[in-house]
Structure formats: C-alpha cells, structure tokens
User: Fold this.
Amino acid sequence: MGDLLQPWHLVVLLVVAFLLFGAKRLPELGKGIGEGLKGFKEGIRGVTEPTPPAPPVQQNTAAATPVSSTPIEPK
Assistant:
C-alpha cells in the first residue's frame, strides 16, 4: 500500500489544484484555509482552557419593596 503522502502525490495534487482553480484563485484559497485553521485552533484553545471562576454574587440584605397585586389602569 505504501505511504499516502509521498512527494509525487503532493506534486500531482498541486498540479490538479492549479488546473482547477487557476493562478489567481490559489492565493485566495490558501488565505481562506489559513484563516479557517487559525479560527479553529482558537476555538479549540478556548474549549480546553478553563474559564476563570465568576466572582460571587452578593445579595442585597435590604428589604424588598412589596409588589402590588392590583393592576395599574392607564389614565
């Protein structure tokens, strides 16, 4: 079976890509793939790094104002 990515395989893939997309589109495709990989790595890094714990919420000890059960009618 052999290795999948031998030098001749890579050359053939580059020639086929050049023929399909042309010289003008290849840099654009490379840039798009690079940006996609960068975003993917940042997303993975965000998943693997633990998030800092949120500060504890302090509850207000003052008495809450009572809510009236009667509806307010417009004038």
About this structure: The CA atoms of residues 63 and 69 lie 18 Å apart. The first helix runs from residue 7 to 48. DSSP finds one helix and no strands in the chain. The helical segments are 7-48.
